[in-house]
Amino acid sequence: MADGQDPFERYFRPREGDPDATAGPDDAPDGVAVDKIPAPRVAVSGGRRRAPQATPRRRVADARRQKRFLIVTGLMSAGVLVSSGAAWGLESYIVNSVGKTDVAGLGKNGSSGPKGAMNILVAGVDRRDGLTRAQQTELHLGHDPGERSDTMMLVHLSHNHDRVTVISLPRDSYVLIPSHKSNGNEGAKGSEVPARYGKLTWTYQFGGPDLTVATIKQATGLSIDHYIEVNFFGFVKMVNAVGGVDVCTPKAINDPKSGLQLPAGKSHVNGIQALGFARARYTLGDGSDLGRIDRQQEFMASMMRQALSVKTLSNPATSLSFLHATLGALTVDKKLAGSLPALANQLKSLSTDSVTFAKVPLADTDYRTVLWTSRLPQSTVRWDDTAAGKLFGEVEQDEPIIKPQASTSASASPAGGQDLTVAPDKIAVRVWNGAGTHGLAGQAAGDLRKAGFDASVVPGVYKKTGLTTTVIQYGPNRADSAKTLAAALPGAKLKEVDSLGTGIQVIVGSDWKGAQKVKVAGAQPSPGSSSDSTVAAKTATQNVLCK
């Protein structure tokens, strides 16, 4: 065995295909089927309502460190749909469709309901034994049986569920694995295994969710309230359900291990291509798993933006297809399954401004030590105990990881002298004609695009015409984005509208005089500008792939 070679690495390394494998808005018409699953009927007063059919749990799972970017997007999109729960009847659909599992050691003082601050452990689980050989070949997976996990992240929901923090945990983290009963992979099944140091990625193989939860609790000092597994085949379907996602690369990619081929620049990828983008390692970045974490967090932000876009949420068939794909990708603890509809409903007002991605502060990215699986030193990742302790302490105290910035500067003065924190190119805005003047909305949208905003025109005129003063309307938790828009439109009125969800729109009045360019300098935290200089954190808005 070569120096530093992990004897379990062969289970996680992307494999080339097997050459011997065989290839194997709001009104939806009645009877629409999404992914061969009948859509629930909309309840109409005096009419009948057919209960939605529960989707069979497709326990095909196939992959790895890429699952970290699924759960937040899925829950937020589900929340928007559940907000129309009476009409869609989605509560029972969600509970019946999601996979369920028993997990020991969850909850804090027996609490596991949907209220209050909570920590959710998300594990990407690799199961190839549910896929055909043709599917494994198409996805460039190997054919080894069994279950493994080398992707883990800790998701923290704030007390009011208006803020989400996602902390990626490196797969090769050097951790103390608690004592446990052998499952047959460490000696005789049922024999006592003492506590010993190892890699975080080993915990699932040696003890499943129970040992994984116990190890994370010990390493972070945090309680784990709920557990979620994500499979990769479901991720492919999720990307396809929203029509693909934009990715940007500085150079062309030709990665034979993941099967990905992309030109330099911007590309619109489907599910299988997105899978390859997440798996590619040696042809992108520095070739490390830590570099891949950065790319996966960026992809998660971009996918979230696509899933929460007006185009997706205004199309019932697309929204239901995405929800079905999300539920098919998840297996959750049984208590969370019952609370999932209520939890998703509470998250419906979240936006990309409300989600923070962070990484555990590290002291050594190549800490070589002898572990019990080999007589030779192996490469592991050591956490910075002091900085990591502070990070997890902030999570325990329900404090935001990214603190408010001290000062910013912009070419246009922010309304009320308030700091700007979101750049124009991160803001999608719908433009309505409120004055009734022919062509005014198109003109305003063009002005906004020239100023850097992602503006689109809503056909027709606003429900009330004759508006003299331009109005900026924004949903809950989009105040920061609205401030940037207000700085570009001096004199416009700001109004928060709960029903907009994560949307922002401009109702153009007869006082329209164009949009000013706004330069936000120093407002977006660099990877080291969070509460501690060694904690890398960004909001999802700042983390999108294509700027």
Structural description of this entry:
The chain has 547 residues and is an alpha/beta fold. Among the domains are: 9-13 and 60-240 and 329-403, 2-Layer Sandwich (Nucleotidyltransferase, domain 5); 415-508, 2-Layer Sandwich (Alpha-Beta Plaits). Helices cover 28% and strands 22% of the residues. It contains 14 helices and 25 strands. The chain has helices at 71-82, 85-88, 90-97, 133-138, 202-220, 232-241, 271-279, 289-307, 310-313, 316-329, 334-346, 385-396, 440-450, 479-488; strands at 33-34, 37-38, 99-101, 118-127, 147-157, 164-169, 174-177, 180-181, 192-193, 196-199, 226-230, 245-249, 253-255, 260-262, 265-269, 330-333, 355-359, 362-370, 377-383, 428-433, 454-457, 471-474, 493-496, 504-508, 536-539. An eight-stranded mixed sheet has the order 3-16-11-4-5-6-17-25, sandwiched between helices. A five-stranded mixed sheet has the order 21-20-24-22-23, covered by helices on one side. Strand 5 (147-157) and strand 6 (164-169) form a beta hairpin. Helix 1 (71-82) packs parallel to helix 8 (289-307), helix 1 (71-82) packs across helix 10 (316-329) and helix 6 packs across helix 7. It is elongated and about 80 Å long. The chain starts with 32 loop residues before the first strand and ends in an 8-residue tail after the last strand. Mean pLDDT is 74; it is low at 8-71, 77-88, 406-417 and 522-533.
